[in-house]
Design goal:
Keywords: mRNA processing, mRNA splicing, Nucleus. Its main location: nucleus. The chain is mostly helical. The protein is built from 24 helices and five strands. It has a five-stranded mixed sheet with strand order 4-1-3-2-5, with helices on both faces. The chain is flat. The protein starts with a helix and ends in a 9-residue tail after the last helix.
């Protein structure tokens, strides 16, 4: 069985060359790969569009190639059981191998872990020993440094310096006395066996640091003594002020025991005088004895009267100051107290101060003349000053330009150009591979031209396919229209926005006078149109005067004015009849007149209402509540003036 038999089968059942080539390649591929019946069948069906012919080709191939024949149920079960046994045995062997490998890996990892732990323990012990040796070496080195530092630098404090200073002075005094008495040689024998070697200047010799500190201390003492002397010299004046002029130098001392007195006599007086100033009065330790103090009769009464008088005076002063604050005199009084009293002079000034402000000169002789040209010679010239024009408050801040509207032909041309540009861009994207080419738009009219041979082979199927595409396109179009369609709420908002106008700057008002509003249809039109236009106002019904007041924007007033004066045919109605009468019918004709229209600052009515009044005063009071009584006055005056002209002769 070779390629020739396969080509013969394709020539027998297939007419198109492309399908024959596809089927040949698919079958050869199945033979090479060793595919079964099902896979071969799928590939042949993909290559052939007509399913009936494809099944004929598949059956012919199965006859020609036995390996593609469909196996029986018994053969399939037998092969499946063999294959399952092989798979189970292979799976079991692979599992055993994997388990053995896992065990080997676990043992190896355990050995590696133990070896690593032993190495880590040894390294830790070595590191600990090294750390201990380092710490010991550091401690020894630190101790050695501390000992050397202690030997080198002994801490020298102020107390040790004082002790050494005292020892040095004592040694100097002892040496001086020994020289005077000549007992330097015999002093050692008198002391005995436990004699101490003599203290010489060498024994108490100071180190350089100690000598420096000693010099610094002596200098500080000297500077401190100088400061104390300066303070004592400054404080002499204050001390003299505290001392009494005839005071003794020392206060009398109390009686002292003879033993204590001897001790005090032995103490040198120079040291006491150094710290005690004899000029300061020393108070005795004893408490002074109080003497009897007798008061004369009436002394306390006089003191009480004085205190009462002072309190009365303070009270009067408080009342006066309060009255002055309330009348405003206090500020003037304070100003007079602060302002220094000017010295009055008898000299007559060259010009009074009130005239100097007006005349702008220093003397009455310098008053300018009445001639304008000589007086304003510097300011008057032939030049003309043109003042800067101010912007009118009604002008817009930005310049307003008229909108340019294109004609229908121009708009059509622009749309066509835009579509052409978009189509060109889309084609370019498809050409370079950035966008996918759209599917062909198939219709019943172009079915044969687009589908070609497919439509010839199975026209029913292709027609159903085309009708489905047409239905999808229609559904998509209707869905887009439904999405663009406004909801009821959006429609109401759009309508309201179209009707409503901004009346924050000014409100346009119109007042109409109608002879009769008894006709229900005309009355309904007047009321309902005002409400639909969102206008405010009132319909005042009276037997002689029917007044219609409406408030709104300019567009609303334009529409309502056309309604009242043109659209509603008032003259076709005879007063008292519900239906429109003929032109020649007798009776008084109805009439509507625009009395006044203009602008007001704000609305006087909240909504549109219908009000009935029986008498004229009641009608005027109803409008007076809304501050528009003058509308009634205008309507009433025009009615009286035109009373004879409104009626038509019978």
């Amino acid at each position: 069985m070779g390629r020739g038999e396969l080509e013969e089968i394709c020539d027998r059942y297939l007419s198109r060359r492309e399908e024959q080539q596809k089927v040949t390649e698919a079958v050869e591929r199945c033979l090479r790969k060793g595919y079964d019946y099902d896979k071969m069948k799928d590939r042949v069906l993909e290559a052939i569009a007509d399913s009936h012919r494809a099944h004929k080709v598949i059956s012919a191939i199965c006859i020609a190639y036995p390996q593609f024949r469909k196996r029986t149920k018994f053969e399939e079960n037998k092969d499946d059981s063999k294959r399952r046994k092989k798979e189970h045995s292979h799976r079991d062997r692979s599992r055993e191998r994997s388990r053995a490998k896992d065990k080997e890996k676990e043992k190896e990892s355990e050995r590696e872990r133990r070896r690593r732990d032993e190495v880590n323990k040894k390294e830790l012990e070595k590191e600990k020993e090294k750390e201990k040796l380092k710490n010991l070496a550091k401690e020894l080195y630190q101790k050695k440094l501390e000992e050397e530092e202690a030997k080198r630098n002994v801490v020298v404090t102020e107390e040790t310096l004082r002790a050494k200073e005292l020892m040095y002075k004592a040694q100097q005094e002892i040496e001086e006395r020994k020289r005077q008495l000549g007992l330097a040689a015999a002093s050692q024998t008198l002391i005995g066996v436990a004699a101490v070697p003599p203290l010489t200047a060498k024994n108490v010799a100071l180190r350089p640091q100690e000598a420096q500190m000693f010099i610094q201390a002596s200098m500080n003492k000297k500077s401190r003594v100088d400061e104390l002397k300066a303070k004592l010299a400054k404080a002499t004046s204050t001390i003299n002020s505290l001392v009494r002029p005839n005071a003794p130098v020392m206060a009398p001392l109390p009686d002292i025991a003879p033993g204590i007195l001897k001790e005090r006599e032995e103490e040198p007086e120079d040291e006491l005088l150094e710290f005690v100033d004899p000029r300061i009065v020393a108070r005795p330790a004893e408490r002074k004895r109080k003497m009897f103090n007798f008061h004369e009769k009436g002394e306390f009464e006089q003191l009480a009267n004085k205190q009462r008088a002072v309190a009365k005076l303070e009270r009067l002063q408080a009342e006066i100051s309060q009255a002055a604050k309330s009348t405003g005199i206090s500020s003037a009084v304070k100003l007079a107290m602060i302002t220094p009293a000017g010295k009055s002079s008898d000299e007559v000034p060259e010009i009074e101060w009130w005239d100097s402000i007006v005349l702008e000169c220093d003397s009455y002789d310098d008053i300018p003349g009445t001639d304008v040209e000589s007086r304003f010679k510097d300011t008057i010239s032939e030049l003309v000053e043109h003042p800067i024009k101010l912007r009118a408050p009604t002008d817009p801040l930005t310049p307003q330009y008229l909108k340019v509207y294109l004609t229908a032909r121009e708009r059509k041309k622009i749309r066509r150009q835009n579509r052409k540009e978009m189509q060109k861009e889309r084609t370019e994207m498809i050409r370079i591979g950035l966008a996918k080419a759209p599917a062909p738009k198939v219709k019943i009219s172009n079915l044969m031209r687009v589908l070609g041979s497919d439509a010839v082979q199975d026209p029913t199927k292709m027609e159903a396919h085309v009708r489905k595409q047409m239905a999808d396109r229609l559904k998509k179009h209707q869905q887009a229209n439904a999405e663009r369609k406004l909801t009821d709420e959006q429609k109401a908002v759009k309508k309201t926005k179209k009707i409503s106008e901004d009346t924050s700057l000014a409100v346009h008002v119109a007042v109409y006078r109608v002879k009769s509003l008894l006709h229900p249809s005309k009355k309904f039109k007047v009321e309902m149109n005002a409400k639909q236009l969102q206008m405010t106002g009132v319909i005042l019904l009276h037997k002689n005067i029917n007044l219609v007041v409406v408030e709104g924007g300019p567009k609303q007033q334009k529409f309502y004015k056309n309604l009242m004066l043109n659209r509603i045919k008032w003259e076709d109605e005879v007063i008292g009849q519900k239906k429109d009468a003929d032109k020649d019918a007798p009776g008084e004709r109805n009439h509507c007149q625009l009395i006044w229209e203009g602008q007001v600052k704000r609305r006087n009515f909240r909504d549109f209402t219908v009000v009935t009044a029986t008498i004229e005063k009641q009608a005027r009071d109803l409008l007076e509540k809304h501050n528009v009584a003058h509308y009634w006055d205008v309507a009433y005056s025009t009615t009286v003036l035109l009373e004879g002209q409104d009626s038509t002769p019978v």
